[in-house]
Amino acid sequence: MQNSMLMSISGVVLIVMNLISFGLMAYDKRCAAKGKWRVPERTLFLAAALFGGLGGVLGMQLLRHKTRHWYFQVFFPLFLIIQVVVLVVLFRTIG
User: Fold this and answer.
1) Rounded to the nearest 5 degrees, what angle is found at the Cα of 47, between the Cα atoms of 55 and 88?
2) Phi, psi torsion values for 52, nearest 5 degrees
3) Can you give the pTM of this predicted structure?
4) How far is CA 85 from CA 17, 24, 30, 37, 63, in A?
5) DSSP string of 29-69?
6) Which of 11, 29, 40, 72 lies at a CB distance of 3.0 to 4.6 Å from 65, suitable for a disulfide?
7) 7 by DSSP, 3-state: which?
8) pLDDT per position in the chain (95 positions), as tens?
9) For position 2, what pLDDT does the model report?
């Protein structure tokens, strides 16, 4: 696979996963406000861990959602940092 194609696919995956992560946070916030069935926290964590860290962090900050839970405050930014490091190493390696 060509390097440019790999970078393009990586970019699309990042955008999609971050939109999903942010969307889940927004949906869960709306459900919480309306007293409806909520998105399980493990689903929010899974989306953030699967390269949706930026969407999760932005969802927390912009929507003011899950900001009182220490494990969201610690792990969502940690996922983001790990993902940035992985991507920097990957892009430096493939050129």
Assistant:
1) 65
2) -115, 25
3) 0.92
4) 17, 24, 32, 35, 26
5) HHHHHHT-PPPPHHHHHHHHHTT-HHHHHHHHHHHT-STT-
6) 29
7) helix
8) 588 888 889 899 999 999 999 999 999 999 999 999 999 999 999 999 999 999 999 999 999 999 999 999 999 999 999 999 999 998 888 76
9) 80
Show the tokens assigned to 14. Answer: 């990042």
Rounded to whole angstroms, the Cα distance separating 93 from 64 reads 37
Q: Roughly how many angstroms between the first and final C-alpha of the chain, as a whole number?
A: 13
| Among 74, 71, 70, 76, residue whose Cα is nearest residue 24 | 76
User: Which candidate, 55, 57, 58, 49, places its Cα nearest to that of 79?
Assistant: 49
Closest by CA position to 77, among listed 55, 92, 94:
55
Which two structure tokens, joined as six digits, stand for 7? 């970078």
Q: Compute and round to an integer the Cα radius of gyration of the chain.
A: 15
